Structures are given as C-alpha cells and as structure tokens.
Amino acid sequence: MNAAVRAVTRMGIYVGAKVFLIYEGYEGLVEGGENIKQANWLSVSNIIQLGGTIIGSARCKAFTTREGRLRAARNLVQHGITNLCVIGGDGSLTGANIFRTEWGGLLEELVRDGQISEDVAKEYCHLNIVGLVGSIDNDFCGTDMTIGTDSALHRIMEVIDAITTTAQSHQRTFVLEVMGRHCGYLALVSGLASGADWLFIPESPPEDGWEDLMCERLGETRSRGSRLNIIIIAEGAIDRNGKPISSNYVKDLVVRRLGFDTRVTVLGHVQRGGTPSAFDRVLSSKMGMEAVMALLEATPDTPACVVSLSGNQSVRLPLMECVQVTKDVQKAMDEKRFEEAIQLRGRSFENNWNIYKLLAHQKPAQEKSPFSLAILNVGAPAAGMNAAVRSAVRIGICQGHTMYVVNDGFEGLSKGQIREVGWHDVAGWLGRGGSMLGTKRTLPKTCMEKIVENVRKFNIQALLVIGGFEAYEGVLQLVEARGQYEELCIIMCVIPATISNNVPGTDFSLGSDTAVNAAMESCDRIKQSASGTKRRVFIVETMGGYCGYLSTVTGIAVGADAAYVYEDPFTIHDLKANVEHLTDKMKTDIQRGLVLRNEKCHEHYTTEFLYNLYSSEGKGIFDCRINVLGHLQQGGAPTPFDRNYSTKLGVKAVLWMSEKLQEVYRKGRVFANSADSACVIGLRKKVVAFSPVTELKKVTDFEHRLPQEQWWLNLRLMLKMLANYQISLTEYISGKMEHVTRRTLSIEKGF
C-alpha cells in the first residue's frame, strides 16, 4: 500500500495537482480536521520498503450511514477535493462507489442546511473515484493480482520452507492454516508452490468420504519413502454440505487413523505483515501512476473504475462490474455451485487448481507412449529451474512418456550423462534454488557429432531445454544442423530461465523475479546504512549482461535516483545532470542517494568511473561508496512467483511437445523439420505463447545477447518520474477500459 500511496502522491504533484493524504481511512474522511493533510514530494520519501500503510487504515461504521457520508462530503468540499483514490478491498471500493452516486444529493443537503453555498456546490458538483485493490486474498474478480498478494505468498513460503526442514528431520505431518475466509487463492498457490500433499479451498470442497482418501494418500507417500506430509487448509475451508473443516479436525483425523506425529500451524496475521516483495512494489507503483491518469481523464460520464494489471499491461475495469462478479462467486458457493465458483474466479485460478491436482499425486498413465523426452539445463543457474524440471518430468510421466534428465547441459548430452527418472526422483525439488541437474554454458556446435550420437543412442524424440540465452542459441544451432543430421529432426522447446531476462520470445524469464528480490533486499539494507550516515550516495552494480531489466526493476522497487542501462544510452551531460540532481537532493531532509548501474551499460563509464565522477563533483556535499552485488543475485530459494510460473511453464511445454509429437509421428518414428517444431515458450503480454526459434532469430541482437525490442523500457518513465526528473508524459501509454464478464474471465491469462 505504501508504494501505491507514494506513486499516487508523486504522480499527482508531478501533473500539477494538489495532493492530500487522508489518515485512518474513511474514519479520517468523516472526522476531517487533522486527518486530511496536504502532501509534498518528501511526505512519501523512504516508505516504499515499509509494510502496512503509513496513512493508517480503519474500518468505519459512520461511513456506512448517510449521515457519516454527509460529513465526509463537507470535509472534501472544504479542502476543494473532487478526486478520490481509494486503496482497499471490495468493501472499501463499494463504499466509495455509493459515496460517488450520492454526491450530488449530499451537496444539495449541505446547501439546504446552509453548510456550503450554492456556488461552492456548483464548483464541486462532481466526484471522480478510482480504486486500487489492496487485498492479500486476491479475491477481487477481474484483476490478475491485487496489492499485497505476492508479499503474503512470500511470508507463507518462508514459513513452509522452514517447516519442511523440521518436518523432514522428525518425520512429521504438518497442517498449515492460511488466510482466505471466502477465497482459496493463497492456499491454492502456496499448495502449488510447495507441492503440498493435500489442499482444502472453499471454492472446491472435497468429495464425501474424503477422510479415507486423504489418509490413504498420506500413508502411501510415507510408504514410498517420504519423511513428511504437508496439508494446506484455507481458513474458510468447507465440506460439500457447507460445514466448516477445521485444521484441528484434520490433525486429529491423521493422528487417529495413521498415528503420525502431527502438528498444526496457523499462520494468521504474519501473512499481512513484513516488507513488501518486489512484484508488489512495482505493481503498486504502476497502478498508482495509472490511477492518477484515470482521474485526470475522468468525466462525469465515465463509470468509477479500478486500476488493474492484466499480464503486464495496466488496464481500467468498471468498479461495479468487478464487484458484481465477486458477489456472484460468493453466491455460487453459498448455493453449492462449486464448478461455477471456480470458473468465476477466472481462468488463472482454474488453471492453478487443475495443475495442482495433476502434479500432487501420481496417477498411472492410461497407456505407455512410444516417446522419450530429455530435459537439460543450460547457461547460468537461475531460481525456478528445478521447479520446471519437476513439473515437466511429472506431467511427462502422466502422459506415459519415458523421461530422461541430462546433467551439465549440452556438454553432458554429448558425454552421455543421461538417465531415466521417475515420479519420486524429483520430489522436494520445487523450493530448491540453482540447478540440481547442473548447468554449463557450452554450445552444441562445439560437440555436435557426439550430441547427435547420443540422441540416436537413447532414441530421444523431444528435447526440453531450460536455460538462458545459451539455451535459445543452442536450440537454434541444433535446428540449423537439421539439414546435416536427420536425428535432430525432433521436437524442441526452450523454457527461458535466466536472471537477466534477456531471452527473446518472453516478457519474463524464470529466476528474474527471485533475482530482483535478492537485489532489492540488498539495496534496502544499503539505503538503511546510508540514512544512518548522512549525505552519502551509494553506487550499486547489478548483473544482467547487456540487459538492463534487473537494474531498472530493482531501481523502481527501491526508489533509486537513477539506473544506468545499455538500452537507454546516456552521455556525460546526463551524468552531470544526475550529479546536480543529487546535489539538490542533499539540500532537503533526505540526505542519501542510490544509483544503480547495470554491469555492461557502458564501455567507458564503468562503476569505478562513476564513483570517481560522483566523488569529485560531490566533494564537500556528499561522499560515495561502491557496492557490487555479484552472485548473490543468482542464488536463493525461488520466490512464489518463480515457483508458480516454472511449474506452469513446465506443464504447458510438455503438453505442447506431446501434441507436436503426435502430429509428426509416422510409421513408428518422429520426423519434424517445420519451423514450429522448435519453439521458445513464454508469457507475452497476456498469453503464454510458443514462438519458433527461427522466427525469433530475426528479432535478436546476438552481439549483445538481447531481444531487439523490450517491453520493460516503458517502465523507465516511471523510474524517472518517481525520482523527480522532468520527463515528457507524451510517451506514457494509458490503460484501456475493459469490461469484466463471464466471457472475459474465461480467457487464459498466463499468470
């Protein structure tokens, strides 16, 4: 919420509006007085890394009455406020809409009571409202992600990772209760991201007789050698008859029937607290900026809207349409139409649920398929690689394929380091960082003959390559060698996994979210140290090769003063302007600066050079320090986003490969040489798409290992605006108004 407050305040000031902060939610709006204060640029400084909200929030009885809303209207008119940005859940937003529809009547009443004059009522005759959805449950229909959901998942996954280690040591069963009275999103995604054994969500109660089935499954996993069981339950879990299922009931059941040592952990309000994740900070900043634009462009005829993310684009949705569908879900659940409830939650929710059910327990394949698939990791390690291998192996086994894994990338493929794996060989891989298979940067052209020999020897008909730019380049080399070697006429797919996010054909690579969070946590600490020592500027170098994604997104997440990247060329004049900007900043109350530099952003303006320049130009005003973040950006356990995204891409890639294998299977052999038989899978705008590597070759800059066009460059506008640089808003792309209906909810979103 703080990142949103900061973005709305700064964008508002930026476009020349007066911005007021209203403290303590609607209560402050009704009480007025000291609760409504005008804000300046520095009012929201150094808050982006704080959890909760600095302007307070309160449930307010008075605002639910007309009398309370009348006082609120008077307070707004007194300050000349006619645009309201509300950050909250569906209750707060519905309240805002009622306030807006009553506005005209409230002003008339104030005129009648002689509290305001007719002229004043005329001047402020219309109230514009825009909503930002802040709810950790992600229960607001029509929006992909609400503010706070990703951070709540971070808290849950930290707890699950910690509990897994103790459960394994003691051979225990844990029942974890997460928040979600009416919505099972948190339970569902954390179940998917931790590979939980059993999951209870309100939208899909278990079939009657679930007790027997659950105990049978738990016993089965133990007898296969697993040392622990994790059961995740949403606090609103119910059975088919609408009767609540409590975590203690589940615990007693396991103890009574199986005799396992079982513990309950109720996560409670831990999930609401803590520092916000990078995804949430960037999401809120984007939404805050868009909210101000929506208010500026609003007319008396535009409906009240909420600003949301769809894929990675900002969109505006009519508030009441979203509220209506959100109510429909609840109604469907109350009336026990559970299938429909899941569909109304949106396609992503339904997808998560289906994938969870596919991967949680091994179901015997209908029949053995004639195909063999091999999986390998290529390039530098990235968080999420193991999760993708796990889901790909398991989905392949469900389809009846023979699944091989290859150690050490293409080099291992040439040396024959290939082995068949089963369902349980990849248990526990989900939360592991790095690459369990081992990864190398070697490209196939150095050992092509040997690779071909092993493809023939193991009869590999499909290759799934999970890795960075080398994975894409390697598959391209294999495709180009098809003319020489018939053995390479097989199905190939690349899942982009690299912290640099520089693979063409996708907007996000596996591991980049984890890397941004790692860089952000380091920068948060650096900022803290700088606020202790006054007047200090830190120059922080990030990884990423030539790709500036990591520095740009980290820069937005930590409120950096500048982020130098290769894609946005800069000259000595820009550097001079930046130094002057920091000199001015030191004259205010905020006496610290943070400048990010991508490792290859400029051949001559190195980190050392920047340090020397800033030190000599800032002499007597501020001093400088260098920090090179280095390999900590490659490590760490994958974030919930990366676990979920990896799992989905692994599943989708193998399903696509199975379909392609069927198409090219003739007389007992696979022969594939069309362009679309070797693709990169990725999230593009709002959909998961497959792009042929030969097509992507045309839009790739191989010298700098970059796609020629990158979507995130438009985030740089926001970075500069929030750091108080004068920029032109003509390049800003406003979100479109989209409608929320049952049809739009059924569209595949990719997240």
Automatic annotation (TrEMBL):
Region annotation (N-terminal catalytic PFK domain 1) maps to 1-361
**Positions contributing to ATP binding:** R59, C60, G89, D90, G91, S92
Regulation of this protein's activity per its record: Allosterically activated by ADP, AMP, or fructose 2,6-bisphosphate, and allosterically inhibited by ATP or citrate.
Cofactor names from the entry are: Mg(2+)
Q: Where is this region: C-terminal regulatory PFK domain 2?
A: 372-751
Compartment(s) of residence: Cytoplasm
Report any Pfam family annotated for this entry. Answer: PFK
User: Which pathway, metabolic or otherwise, does it act in?
Assistant: Carbohydrate degradation; glycolysis; D-glyceraldehyde 3-phosphate and glycerone phosphate from D-glucose: step 3/4
**What Enzyme Commission number does this protein have?**
2.7.1.11
What's a single GO MF annotation on this record?
A: identical protein binding
Q: Where is the Phosphofructokinase domain?
A: 1-294, 373-656
* Binding residues annotated for substrate, in chain numbering: S135, I136, D137, R172, M179, G180, R181, E235, R263, H269, V270, Q271, R272
User: Which positions does UniProt annotate for Mg(2+) binding?
Assistant: D90
Q: What is its main location?
A: cytoplasm
Q: Give the reaction(s) catalysed.
A: beta-D-fructose 6-phosphate + ATP = beta-D-fructose 1,6-bisphosphate + ADP + H(+)
Single Gene Ontology BP term? fructose 6-phosphate metabolic process
GO cellular component term, pick one: membrane
Concerning its family, UniProt says: Belongs to the phosphofructokinase type A (PFKA) family. ATP-dependent PFK group I subfamily. Eukaryotic two domain clade "E" sub-subfamily. Belongs to the phosphofructokinase type A (PFKA) family. ATP-dependent PFK group I subfamily. Eukaryotic two domain clade 'E' sub-subfamily.
Its assembly, as annotated, is: Homo- and heterotetramers.
What name appears for this protein in its UniProt entry?
ATP-dependent 6-phosphofructokinase
Q: Which organism is it from?
A: Apteryx owenii
